[in-house]
Design brief:
The chain has about 180 residues and is mainly beta. The chain has one helix and 13 strands.
Length: about 180
């Protein structure tokens, strides 16, 4: 081969190798919180039930390939705040975290003192069982590489509920957890 054919051949080879990756980039499009580390399942409203009740959140990335990926050992930042207008069972504003809910760096939520009930019983006699409505919640989001997840709302049932009119004789605070 002479120089005249070697240079164009090298240029063509370089072009072919540079195009091999075209169209195969897989980039992050959004992130999502989940209570599962095996599947991306948006949790809906969570409830921290009982003193020391916990809920673990995991962050999933949604990529352009359509394949979700769990962020394990990634620098995800979790934030918690009081959902605006939130009240406890006494119609007092929910205290700002971490007063009643602790959020760890790895997404573990824990009900801590002072314990609180963010549910209200709207049942009226002659009913003898509560009719629960969430009156307050905390909002949790995750941030990773400039993306912020949709909010997850967290109710708290770590304090005994009121029995003002005989509709909550067992002193529950919110609906019991389902497993």
């Amino acid at each position: 081969m002479n120089r005249k054919t070697l240079l164009p051949a090298l240029a063509c080879a370089l072009l072919v190798f540079s195009m091999l990756g075209c169209g195969t980039t897989d980039h992050l499009q959004s992130i999502q919180l989940s209570t599962s580390n095996s599947a991306e399942t948006p949790p809906g409203t969570l409830d921290l039930y009982g003193e020391g009740g916990t809920a673990q959140l995991y962050t999933w990335g949604n990529y352009s390939s359509g394949v979700p990926r769990l962020f394990a050992n990634e620098p995800v930042q979790y934030q918690i705040s009081v959902t605006p207008g939130s009240l406890d069972q006494f119609n007092d504003p929910l205290p700002a975290p971490p007063n009643t809910v602790q959020l760890s760096e790895d997404g573990l939520l824990t009900a801590v003192t002072p314990f609180i009930c963010s549910w209200q019983n709207s049942a009226v006699p002659p009913a003898t069982t509560p009719a629960w409505g969430l009156s307050g919640s905390y909002t949790v989001t995750a941030t990773f590489q400039g993306f912020t997840s949709p909010a997850v709302f967290v109710g708290v049932a770590s304090q005994a509920g009121l029995d003002l009119n005989g509709t909550n004789p067992t002193g529950e605070c919110g609906p019991p957890p389902t497993q």
